[in-house]
């Protein structure tokens, strides 16, 4: 699991959402030693060709284009180039300069009689990204909402929506953030935009989904490493190093983190070192800080604390000299506290622990509301207990036996508690299985009675049409046509020679349930009876059993079975096999 409890890292992946208002201008110009002879359009083309690979060069082209726009007093292009310069500075973590330039662009655009809505939307969106990068999320949200007002086309709305989802993610609304990311991904996939642009957006969103799952590893009780692995692999398949080096290395940062989560510490270190080599050449302090941090985390896991401290301190040096607000600063101090204490430097460890506490206490009001209980009741006490344990081991070897006894006692206590919990769980499952078997017996009794009694639907239902359809529905049930994999509302309507709306209302009114609940209940009840009485069927895999009863996916079958019976199919089958062995 991840060893951090909040946010993981700054908004790496929002900067993937490149704005393509320059895309109609050719970027196929070759670079020469002098920019003096270049036209405005040529400079913009050169900028577009470099922004995804080398923003330090791209900003030179945009600054020259800005000079040309000022010479011609072209306010539209002045604003556009200010935006481009701001975007480069955002890439390079020059946030104060980025904010200054984008504010100037917004001021120019806002004073024009005819508003350039697209460019204003881009500017406000970029301003929001800068605010988010310096952890002023309330201002970021205001900027995104302003960008939304000016946004006219679908893709720009997706950019803004993705950035708002990022804020939701940063404040632990993970499920909602993932829902928005996946919804946007589907929209992009089905869009008709240029293929290269489409893939860039797809990879950006996939990277955000990956990051969210990685953060959820620690913030929730689940383990989402497999999901993170799936989406990051998908992103890496779609994008190569040659297409956009900056974007590619951000994906490698995710890969580095996933390898750490999978316990492949040596591979994670090797990949982190590759990232370090790249970012040192390209002045990317954000990626460098993250790479150093994870090299340190990997070495700490390998109990090579001196090497871990070396890289933690490198990351700390970047943070102390940066304009960016790094959420990992608190976590870095925590790791430094543990590592220094582990090598016996207790005072140094305490110093970083005090810094960790100070940073926890300095959380913004929004974060305190969400995270205060977790930090106060869980993280800090656990960390203090771990530090105290390490101090005792280092300061007094004489207490080693006492420590071992305490640990042994704790383990025994955990085992006892686990055993009691397990017994209670097993008892609860057995009770549910007994209830399910009783239900099966009742279903078998009702089924036998149904075979022997004559249908009297027409006597109970006064609506002749409804009575006729209910008789057909009864025949549909008797033939067990609901077990077809193709069984849908339209399928049933066709069998009953009616329309979907009428059939749906019929089931709602006379069966007192939705169509989906009706079909699912029939299938699960049939499964319960047949599995009890069919030994051959019991030997099938869960997937094959699911298909036998009309479910296309094993997961859907298991979920429906658990929802209706309170137990999983595997537990039911196990009980049936045990009873068979006893008999």
TrEMBL record:
Instruction: Keyword check for Cell membrane, yes or no.
Output: no
UniProt cross-references to InterPro entries, sorted A to Z: Homeodomain-like_sf, HTH_AraC, TPR-like_helical_dom_sf, TPR_rpt
Repeat (TPR) positions are: 289-322
Domain of life per record: Bacteria
Q: Which residues cross the membrane?
A: 12-29, 404-422
Pfam families, alphabetically? HTH_18
Q: Name one GO molecular function term.
A: sequence-specific DNA binding
Q: Which UniProt keywords apply?
A: Coiled coil, DNA-binding, Membrane, TPR repeat, Transcription, Transcription regulation, Transmembrane, Transmembrane helix
SUPFAM superfamilies from the UniProt entry: Homeodomain-like, TPR-like
Query: PROSITE patterns, alphabetically?
Result: HTH_ARAC_FAMILY_2, TPR
Q: Ranges for the HTH araC/xylS-type domain? A: 471-575
- The residue stretches assigned to a coiled coil in this entry are 426-453
UniProt keyword Metal-binding, yes or no: no
Q: What is this protein called?
A: HTH araC/xylS-type domain-containing protein
UniProt source species: Kordia antarctica
């Amino acid at each position: 699991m991840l060893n951090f409890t909040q946010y993981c890292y700054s908004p790496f992946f929002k900067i993937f959402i490149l704005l393509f208002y320059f895309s109609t201008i050719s970027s196929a110009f070759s670079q020469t030693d002098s920019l003096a002879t270049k036209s405005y359009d040529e400079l913009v083309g050169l900028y577009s060709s470099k922004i995804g690979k080398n923003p330090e060069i791209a900003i030179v082209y945009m600054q020259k284009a800005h000079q040309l726009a000022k010479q011609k007093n072209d306010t539209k292009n002045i604003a556009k180039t200010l935006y481009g310069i701001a975007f480069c500075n955002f890439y390079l973590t020059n946030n104060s300069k980025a904010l200054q330039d984008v504010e100037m662009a917004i001021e120019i655009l806002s004073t024009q009689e005819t508003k350039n809505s697209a460019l204003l939307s881009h500017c406000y969106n970029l301003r929001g990204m800068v605010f988010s990068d310096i952890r002023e999320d309330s201002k970021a949200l205001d900027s995104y909402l302003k960008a939304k007002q000016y946004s006219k086309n679908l893709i720009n709305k997706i950019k803004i929506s993705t950035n708002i989802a990022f804020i939701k993610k940063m404040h632990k609304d993970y499920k909602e953030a993932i829902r928005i990311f996946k919804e946007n991904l589907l929209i992009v996939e089905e869009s008709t935009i240029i293929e290269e642009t489409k893939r860039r957006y797809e990879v950006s969103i996939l990277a955000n989904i990956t990051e969210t799952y990685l953060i959820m590893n620690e913030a929730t009780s689940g383990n989402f490493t497999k999901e993170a692995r799936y989406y990051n692999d998908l992103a890496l398949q779609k994008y190569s190093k040659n297409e956009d080096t900056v974007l590619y290395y951000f994906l490698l940062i995710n890969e580095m983190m996933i390898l750490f989560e999978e316990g492949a510490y040596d591979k994670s270190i090797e990949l982190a070192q590759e990232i370090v080599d790249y970012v040192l050449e390209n002045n990317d302090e954000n990626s460098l800080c993250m790479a150093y941090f994870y090299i340190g985390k990997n070495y700490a896991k390998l109990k090579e604390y001196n090497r871990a401290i070396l890289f933690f301190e490198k990351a700390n040096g970047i943070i102390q000299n940066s304009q960016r607000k790094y959420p990992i600063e608190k976590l870095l101090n925590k790791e430094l506290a543990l590592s220094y204490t582990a090598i016996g430097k207790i005072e140094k460890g305490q110093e970083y622990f005090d810094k960790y506490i100070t940073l926890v206490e300095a959380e913004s009001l929004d974060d305190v509301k969400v995270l205060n209980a977790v930090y106060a009741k869980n993280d800090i006490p656990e960390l203090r207990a771990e530090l105290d344990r390490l101090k005792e081991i280092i300061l007094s070897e004489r207490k080693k036996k006492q420590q071992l006894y305490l640990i042994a006692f704790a383990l025994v206590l955990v085992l006892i508690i686990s055993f009691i919990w397990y017994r209670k769980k097993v008892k609860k499952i057995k009770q549910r299985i007994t209830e399910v078997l009783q239900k099966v017996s009742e279903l078998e009794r009702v089924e036998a009675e149904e075979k022997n009694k004559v249908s009297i639907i027409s006597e109970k239902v006064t609506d002749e049409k409804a009575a006729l359809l209910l008789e057909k529905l009864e025949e549909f049930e008797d033939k067990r046509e609901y077990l077809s994999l193709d069984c849908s509302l339209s399928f049933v309507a066709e069998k009953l020679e009616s329309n979907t709306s009428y059939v749906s209302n019929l089931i709602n009114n006379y069966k007192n349930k939705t169509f989906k609940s009706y079909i699912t209940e029939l299938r699960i009840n049939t499964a319960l009876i047949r599995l009890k009485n069919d030994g051959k069927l019991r030997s099938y895999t869960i997937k094959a059993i699911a298909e036998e009863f009309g479910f296309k996916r094993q997961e859907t079958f298991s979920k429906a079975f658990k929802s209706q019976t309170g137990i999983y199919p595997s537990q039911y089958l196990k009980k049936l096999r045990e009873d068979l062995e006893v008999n």
